[in-house]
Specification:
3 domains, 29 strands, alpha+beta, ten-stranded mixed beta sheet, single chain, BirA Bifunctional Protein, domain 2, 603 residues
């Protein structure tokens, strides 16, 4: 908290216009005070009641030195860039007013949420202008630590305390998740992840000219994001209920009540920006935009269930020491699905469909998930045991169950985090789904039921693949072990290597043929040795190397080598059919690269 303390001869303010939904109800009139201590007050993100009390105790000392006992608390958002959300700000300002009166101070408070015409005259003595900074005490933060309870939920619905559970040998991944999430065991310092080098080769890097935690994508990496976006969009279109694709902005007015309330549930990892007349929050998923759109729709029970979807550019103020390429960033792409359901029964049915799809997608990569089930109340588990039993049928392992203390969360009942264990033995959350019972009322999203009555839908939040970057993280983690990328996602699927310039024309002819039928191909026409061309293709993670020389031309075949494999002869049609078979069911996208490798800069 920061306070610019001014001892004034007089001050006048006049409320002009309501600026936010939380603006206090007042009579619009000019207000004047004389010989008063004005507190231009900026409430910051981590401020709480302790800071409000401490501030007024310090002000009490200043009043004694000045020989007055009258203050005006004036909301002022210009002393810090770490502003609290409007709900918290108003709450803290009211607490300051309350504590001031408890201390015997004559307290006045200017209205919150208004633009105001302001003028004052500062006295001329040395104590007339002072800047106070009220810092949060660390011990107070520790007092508010959330105490969660952890259990193992077995496949036969038994609950066992995590400290008493005996892990089987095949439950290694579950044990890692429990030690990391429930027991807080960090283990030894891990070496640099091997996938980082693969990412660099593909043009996936931190952007050094931006804020910490922002990535950049070269031509290969940009293509990978595009095809991942196409892939997840196709998944969404295949779901057995209508899903409406929407688009919108990435910044929302923090002075709007539903936005401020929702933001207040997510801690302090928010990006804030200011314009001429308002403060905005950068979205951390597609929730704000989709809810803002849905609240304006006229919805009948006949329209439900339905989904809304956007690949949303999202922002989270992750700590600088916690950022990790492709996994934990401050800016990322979130394929965010929200499903609006009539009631909890319908929500559970849709939840099971999405739960199945989440598992089936990760299994296509040869991986499986270990799950963490978060509950905002134990009562939901007791009431819905049949539902949990159905969820467990799809799980490979028992699950880690976490119960939050009462009152910590205000809108979800169940949140599942789906984790892989990466090549360094760390549990990494990729996908997620949750049941939301609060935001439909908060944003006034409603539908008309069979009896013509207004009802509020249950909302499912789901990222089937996780963020695009986190799904890519799994792919790169796989590549560390398998030494190859999935063919459908490879930016360049085939590189053709003519043995010499004599065979360049044949190589270009084949390259054009493959390109015309949708295979992503390059011809290495550089003046390099064949062995150098092969090494470079390996380094660039090309899936297929095709060699064309005298033998191939004379026998009307091509020599093909899949990355990490052996060279073998194939007919061109056989080669094309192999690629088509391996990419069947996956999106087909072109990449904007010249056919000749010599025409490209070195990425």
């Amino acid at each position: 908290m920061k306070i610019l303390q001014l001892h004034v001869d007089w001050i006048e303010y006049e409320p002009i216009k309501e600026e936010i939904g939380l603006a206090e109800s007042i009579e619009k009139k000019k207000v004047r005070f004389e010989n008063i201590l004005v507190l231009l007050t900026t409430v910051e993100r981590e401020d709480g009641e302790n800071e409000a009390r401490k501030a007024m105790e310090e002000i009490k000392s200043s009043l004694s030195a000045l020989g007055i006992n009258k203050v005006l608390i004036y909301p002022y958002a210009h002393l810090s860039h770490k502003l609290a959300d409007p709900l918290l700000s108003l709450q803290i300002l009211k607490k300051m007013e309350e504590y001031g009166r408890e201390l015997g101070i004559e307290v006045y408070r200017a209205p919150f949420g208004w633009s105001k015409r302001l003028s004052f005259s500062i006295k001329g003595h040395p104590l007339a202008e002072q800047l106070k900074e009220i810092k949060r005490e660390k011990k107070k933060v520790e007092e508010k630590k959330i105490e969660k309870r952890y259990f193992i939920l077995t496949k036969d619905m038994q609950l066992i305390d995590v400290k008493e559970y005996k892990f089987r040998e095949e439950e290694r991944d579950l044990k890692i998740l429990v030690e990391q999430e429930a027991l807080g065991l960090k283990g030894k310092e891990k070496p640099k992840p091997a996938y980082i080098e693969i990412a660099k080769k593909l043009g996936i890097e931190w952007e050094e000219f931006s804020d910490i935690g922002h990535m950049r994508y070269g031509p290969y990496a940009s293509f990978i994001l595009d095809i991942l976006g196409e892939y997840v969009s196709n998944i969404i279109k295949s779901l057995p209920f209508p899903v409406y694709f929407v688009k919108g902005t990435n910044m929302f007015d923090l002075n709007q009540k539903p936005i401020a309330e929702h933001v207040s549930l997510f801690g302090q990892r928010m990006y804030m920006i200011e314009t001429e007349d308002r403060k905005l929050v950068m979205r951390y998923a597609a929730c704000f935009q989709q809810f803002s759109i849905a609240r304006n729709w006229q919805i009948s029970y006949k329209n439900l269930p339905f989904g809304m979807f956007e690949i949303a550019d999202s922002y989270r103020f992750e700590q600088s020491g916690e950022t990790l390429l492709c996994f934990r960033m401050r800016k990322f792409w979130m394929p965010d699905l929200h499903v609006f359901c009539r009631n909890m029964e319908e929500a559970k049915e849709i939840f099971l469909i999405l739960h199945e799809r989440i598992f089936s997608e990760i299994e296509k990569l040869g991986r499986s998930y270990t799950s963490l089930y978060n509950l905002s109340s134990f009562e939901f588990f007791e009431k819905e045991k049949e539902f949990f039993a159905k969820l467990l049928e799809r799980e490979k392992y028992p699950v880690l169950l976490c119960v939050y203390p009462p009152g910590v969360n205000y809108y979800w009942t169940l949140n599942i985090e789906y984790h892989i264990v990466d090549e360094l033995g760390r549990a990494r959350e990729i996908s997620t789904i949750q049941i939301d019972v609060g935001n439909s009322k908060r944003f006034d999203i409603n539908y008309t039921d069979e009896n013509g009555k207004k009802q509020y839908p249950v909302i499912l939040h789901c990222a089937i693949l996780g963020s695009l970057e986190r799904f890519l993280y799994v792919i790169l983690d796989n590549a560390v072990k398998k030494k190859i990328l999935p063919l459908w996602i490879a930016p360049v699927q085939v590189r053709i290597l003519p043995v010499s310039d004599k065979y360049l024309e044949k190589a270009l002819e084949l390259g054009n043929l493959l390109k015309e039928i949708g295979i992503r191909v390059q011809v290495d026409d550089r003046q390099e040795t064949l062995s150098k061309k092969i090494r470079d293709a390996e380094t660039n993670w090309i899936n297929y190397i095709v060699v064309i020389g005298e033998k191939e031309v004379n026998n009307n075949v091509i020599s093909v080598r899949e990355r990490g494999g052996q060279l073998s002869e194939m007919k061109i049609d056989e080669f094309i059919n192999e690629i088509r078979e391996k990419t069947k069911g996956y999106p087909q996208l072109d990449i904007s690269l010249p056919l000749k490798l010599s025409k490209m800069p070195k990425f």
